[in-house]
Amino acid sequence: MELDTLCEKFESGDISKEDFIAELKKMRAFSKTDRFKLKVVDNAPFSMWACDEEYIIRYWECECERIYGYSSEQAIGKRFLELFVAAPERNQAELECKKIIEGRSAPGEFINNMAVDFDSLGRDVTLMTNCFRIFDDESQKWLQAEIALPTDVEKVVQKHADILRNYQKLQSTIARYENDKKSFLESVGARVKDLTAVTRKILNSRRKSILQTEDIEKLDSLQSTIDKTRRKIIGSIDENLKIIQEAKSIEQCSAASDDYVSCKNVCRQMLDDIQDYLDDIVEELKVDSITHTIELNQARSEAIIESDAEGNTLLLRINNLIQIAFDTSDNLSFRSNNDIPRKKIEQYTSYVGDVQKLLSSLKAKISQCTSKSQIANCRVEFTRNLKRIEKNLDSNEESV
Length: 400
Fold this sequence. Notes:
Elements: H1 3-12, H2 17-27, H3 32-43, E1 47-51, E2 57-62, H4 64-68, H5 72-75, H6 80-84, H7 87-101, E3 111-118, E4 124-136, E5 141-150, H8 157-203, H9 213-245, H10 250-285, H11 288-332, H12 340-368, H13 372-398
Antiparallel strand pairs: 1-2, 1-5, 3-4, 4-5
Helix pairs in contact: 1-2, 8-9, 8-10, 8-11, 9-10, 11-12, 11-13, 12-13
C-alpha cells in the first residue's frame, strides 16, 4: 500500500489509528517516489510558503530565504501582506488568499500571478507565483500555499501598471463619495436648520395665545425628533460610507455605493416626513405668517435641491471627461510627450470651479429671497449660466 493511499484511508476514517501505525511500521521508510518528491522540494529553485486565514506565515521552505532575505525564524508568525507585498497589490493579494482558503475556487484550480514583491532590503522581487489550497494536518485548517519562481521584470510591467491604475481608480472613487457625503450632509443641515427655525417661530407665538397646550407639547416633541433624526442620518451615512472606504476592488465599491444611494433616499424621506408633519401642524393652526415662512423655506429647499441636482449632473460629466483625459495621458506617455490631455484636464478643472462657484452664489442669493418669485428668478439665472458652461464644454469636446 502506498503512503498517500494509507494517509487518505486514515483521514477518511476507513482504518483505525492502531492499524495506521501498524502499516507505517511495515513500510519502515518512504517509497522511492516519496524520496524523489522530497529531493525535488529540497533542491528546487523556487520559494514555497504557506499562510493561514489571518495571512500569517506558517511554513517557509525551499528558496524563500534566498529570494526574500528572511530566515524561517524571521518569517514564520508574520503576516505576508506587510512582510513582502507592495502596498498597491495588498488588496488584491488579500482577496485572492481569502478566496483560496475558503475554497471558492474550482477544485484543483490554481491562481497564477506575476507579482512584484520586495525583499528584506526593500528591493523589488519579480516572481511568477502559483497559489493553491492545502490542508494542514497539524493545525487541522486549510492554508494558502504559494510556489514562486523569480522572473524577468519586463514580463510583469503591463499587469503591474493595470493593478496600479485600478488602485488609483478605487481611491478616486472613494474620494468622490467622501465629497458627496460632505455635500449631502450640508444639505441635510440646511433642511434641519429650516425645520428648527419654523418650529421655534411657532413656539415664539405663545404670547399671542395662538397655541393650545397640546400644540406646544407637540412642537416641543417635534424639536427633539428633528435633532434625533439629524444624528441618525449622520450615523447611517457614515456607516455606509465606511463600507465604501473599506472596499478592496472597484466591484465591491460599486456594490457598496448602491446601498449608499439607497441610504441617502431613506434619509431624505425621513426629513420629508417631518416636513409633512410640520405642515399639518401649521395647517391646523392656520397661522398665515407661519404658513408663508414654511412655503418660502420649502421653495428655497426645493430650489437648492433642484440646482444641486443640475449642477452635480454636469459635475459628474466633467469628472468623467477628466478621468478619460487622465487615461489618455497614461496611454500616450508610453509613446510620446503629448500636452493635449494635460491642457484638457486644466480646462475641465476650470469648469468644475465655475460650476461650484455658481452653486455657492445661488445658495447665497436664495437665502436672501423674501418671495417665491425672487427664488424663481434666481433659478432662471442659475440655469442660464449653467447652460452657458455646458455649451462651452460641448465646444471643448468637439475640438478634441
